[in-house]
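I hope you will forgive my troubling you with a question about protein structure. I should value your view on which stretches of the chain appear to form regular backbone elements. Here, with my thanks, is the record as I have it:
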Amino acid sequence: MTDERPIGVFDSGVGGLTVLRALREELPGESLLYLGDTARLPYGTKSPDTVSRYAHQAAAHLIGYGVKLVVVACNTASALALDEVQATLGDLPVVGVVRPGAEAAVRESVTGRIAVISTESTAQHGAYDREIRARRPDAQVASRGCSLFVALAEEGWSHGPIVEAIAREYLEPLMESHRPDCLVLGCTHFPVLTDAIAGVVGPDVRIVNSAATTAAVVRRELEARDLVRSTAKPSLRLLATDSPERFLRVARRFLPAELLPENVDLVDLS
């Protein structure tokens, strides 16, 4: 049996394409539909009520395309609105990125000293702290909001002296005060900055990107519901709420050229 409906994925911008790429690797036969809410990014500086409203609108828009599962590929929306979105969508499965990221952190950390970098909203909400401690009660978790990393990723800046200086400003105090052996990239924009981040934290700190773990959770969810696609040529469609040409240009830093469609469709969530 096969289910031809696509998997729907949304984020505030291009960052969730790191999850999309992991989904393509984990589930190469699945069609994917990605929505980047570029008109209203970043979510990480918005109030919880605003993030919840945006997340509901994005999920509802994806439902209009007949998706079979929704991936909330935004740590802020996963932290602040995942349960509400799931309640609204009823039986349609919804997967966020915070819980898989917490699972990966617990698995990778030896000492239990874990650092999480994210947007300000995700850090203030404490979602990673709770999810990590639920799995390892003795864990010592330190969080740091690094919102400028989102702007760098959206601009396509991943290397160079400016990126390195910002990374040092954010991360050196965290490394000195907490001495973690594991660092969670608690925002889907951050993986494109991995080289700069690794250059600050050093080789002894394991860096966790929740994208692959999230893709594995999606696979298990589809298998459990007998929704896996196994036939036909998979498709990829990209949607953006603003500046589709710019979205496609920056997306080339996240995805191989052969995976990208020629155009990004402009949509309105209001």
